[in-house]
Amino acid sequence: MFDLLAPLLAGFPTVLLFLLALIYLDSYKLVRLRRIMFAILLGGTAAAISYAANAVMLPRVALDFAAYSRYVAPIVEESAKALVVIYFIRSQRTGFLVDASIVGFAVGAGFALIENAYYLHSVADPRILVWLIRGFGTAVMHGGTTTIFAITAQLLAERTSPKKLRIFVPGLFAAILIHSMFNHLFISPVFSTLVILLVFPPLIFVVFGKSEASLQSWLEVGFDADTELLELIYSGRLSESKVGRYLQSLRQRFSGEVVADLLCYLRIHVELSLRAKGILMMREGGFDIEPDEETRARFAELKYLEGSIGVVGKLAMSPFLHISGRELWQLYMLQDGIPSARAEVGPPSP
Description:
single chain, 14 helices, mainly alpha, 0% strand
């Protein structure tokens, strides 16, 4: 019975509680439970892949186990976890530091669960106290380093583009460095666990607070801008605005039918943007609002218009469509829970 329960007792329940605390503190409920479970599963898969890679590399390098665990294993393991987070960020499944933090910690928790289970069965030290200390420290370390990577990458993605690989380098370097330092300190499990406990949770909660404030500011500014543009479209005064004058200039390069489709595409895009912001605001107020059938129809119409205006038309409208960063993420967020729409607009969402 001990062999079956010890992996679960080795720090994972505490880390799971910490993850649940992050989810609870997320006022906007940006990350669905199935996505968190998917991240935990991928984190466990990354642990299995890391174990295989370490098993192959350890006999081939001129290092003993202690040196390997300090200088090589952190590179392998943090890179494996980082690939999972990169998948979430590059596929626009995270839009703010809050959801990046949750996904990152979930990946680290899944990794730690598999790693602790393996070490428990491979090391001859059945003392439960040792494994509770070691398991807790390792689990928080893995969750913390992956969270730091996710936060750093998401922050840089907001400033540039999630498609640029260089935005992932600083966070990965920091995660590897912290992991290596943790392994250096592990000569004293109690001390290293205490250091991790004193540093990571306060850091993550501070980031949470700042991210929530940033999200609130973005919602207020973006909602006002989208509302103003939509009012111009419906009132017939769009021609008086910069957008209207820009559309008039496009008549020299596109036919009248295509220009009309461009205007429809802009209108639907803004409507969906407003719906997404409205859902976030309702979630903050405690209402779990799901996209409806009308939203599904809007996405189908958006898909049709994309084919009508073509790539050139989308590029021409790019100054007003907000097709990157948070704005693109909010459209993917709006599709969450609409199975038929996922196959039509954007990548699938786990």
